Amino acid sequence: MRVPRRSPLLLLGGLITAALLFPAGALAHGIVGKADLPIPVWLFSWAAAIVLVVSFVALSTLWRSPRLQQQHRRRLLRLPRALEWFACALGLGLFALVLYSGFAGAQAPTANFSVTFIYVIFWVGLPVLSVLLGDIFRALSPWRTSARMLWWMGRRLAPGRFAQPRLSYPPWLGLWPAVAGLVGFAWLELVYVNRDQPSLLAALSLGYFLAMLAGMLSCGVEQWGDRGDAFGVYLNLLSRMSALVRDDQGFLCLRRPLSGLPELPVRRGTVALICTIIGTTTFDGLSNGGIWRNNEPSLQSLFADIGLHSTPAYELTASLGLVLCILLIAGIYRLGILGVHSVSDRYDTDQLTRAFVHTLVPIAFAYVLAHYFSLLLWQGQALGYLISDPLGDGSNLFGTSGYQIDYQVISYAAIWYVQVAALVAGHVGGLALAHDRALVIYRDPLQAIRSQYWMLAVMVAFTSFGLWLLSAVGT
Questions:
Q1: Calculated CA dihedral for residues 249, 265, 123, 104, nearest 10 degrees
Q2: pTM beyond 0.85
Q3: Rounded Cα gap, residues 457 and 189, in angstroms
Q4: Most distant CA pair in the chain, distance
Q5: Of 327, 362, 350, which Cα lies nearest the Cα of 459?
Q6: pLDDT in tens, 262-289
């Protein structure tokens, strides 16, 4: 059954209105009171929606042919081989320091190098660097470096046994190991009560290292690293937004920003991976807001009534919220794809889901940057003293152990503006990618534009929801 032409416009208007009215109820929460903003949150939401609509009109009018389907690389310089070796050594050294400080250092989270490095530098800083500099984690990854070294040694000591991997990575497995890894890390960070225990983080890091090493030795470094390594897959995904890329000949190249995303290989689990990134960040914001805090005790009491103690009841409640947030994001994207499908029967919904999934990547990064910007800016400064005293035992290796975090380096209002700008820019980027892909798959430009009414509705919904989360949580 085909949907009448006016239906997408009516639904679009309804979704935009609902999404914009929803944040207006968050005025009393979090960052609004702290930042003393010059204009209310609902006005930010309307302004963001207007930017998206204007961008949509501009794209429809001025962007009449695909521009992002090819990268148009231009070589800048050849990267010295020594730089890659340095990056590999740096990654191994930092990983060794994480293990050593986690096991041997003080078990106080704020005094131990491992906690800040894992949750701030690795989890938040590396995604930002990946968007700015490209896929640097490919060289920094300690498990990839170790596996390559073992393969190199094996081929020289036993050429017959190490000629090729013993196993072939099963295609049906797709990216699901990476999805499981990201969900597991998010559960550790957002749900598990003892999440900041240094020895636990060191043990889990060592366990993940050994699991990745086993996978790479069994299926090959590239096969497993591009599919089974949660962090390698995640950071490579974000690096496709970067204007910088290293080619196979070792040259640093400049390309059009976002042009690496249309070439994203869509495997089984790719959609789930991207929805997981957005969904876990959504739950991080939601779990610190008033709605969750007001209803969480009632949910916990349901599990307490069946005999669970307070800690398991809390963790089970939070786990449920985490899963529901991921499913919510997947559901919103699915609704958008169903709307796109209503424009033309040329492609089925599965084909459209795979064709447009890369458009969610800028949104995923926007959510990460907006939500964790203040954490990176403030807690990232802790490396100033932790690098001199990584064990928290009073040492002063580089003379910086007395360094203090400067919380006045930026105002709350400035943080809010950065967060809003990140959200809007990410969604405009997603809109541009969706429009560019629509011009490729639809022969009629007008049909391509009509299909994007639905993607515009998705972008506005995500933007307004993100602004509501920020206003409800604060920084």
A1: -70
A2: yes
A3: 31
A4: 72
A5: 362
A6: 999 999 999 999 999 999 998 988 887 7
